[in-house]
Amino acid sequence: MRVLAPAIVDFFDEGDESGLAEYSAKALERIWKAQNFSYWATNLMHIQPGENPFNQKRRRGEFASITGSDRGSAYFAECYTGWPDN
User: Fold this and answer.
1) What are the Cα distances from residue 27, in Å, to 21, 24, 86?
2) What's the distance, CA 19 to chain centroid?
3) DSSP per residue over 21-37, as a string?
């Protein structure tokens, strides 16, 4: 709705169709970013079938890097809650 609602408002209030014309491309960009984050976070937080001890420790280290850093935490939070409209 972050992309669609403003496009609909612009169309009905001002007759501007540009937002609706650009909607698919903008929405798909956001969807693929969300898909990538979902895949990454799932693999980060869950033991994978056949995962060896090295990969378990590597995954824990990656998680510690994210949670132990203001920038890592901000990145995770932004991905989890959605991205700015730009």
Assistant:
1) 11, 5, 12
2) 21
3) HHHHHHHHHHHHHHHHH
Other CB atoms closer than 10 Å to residue 7's CB: what's the count? Answer: 19
Task: Extract the tokens encoding 25.
Answer: 């491309």
pLDDT digits (tens, 9 = 90+) for 8-47: 999 999 999 999 999 999 889 888 999 999 999 999 999 9
pLDDT-derived band at 85, boundaries 50, 70, 90: low
- Asked whether the beta carbons of 48 and 55 are under 8 A apart, the reply is yes
24 burial level (CB within 10 Å; 0-12, 13-18, 19+): exposed
Tokens of residue 64, six digits: 């510690």
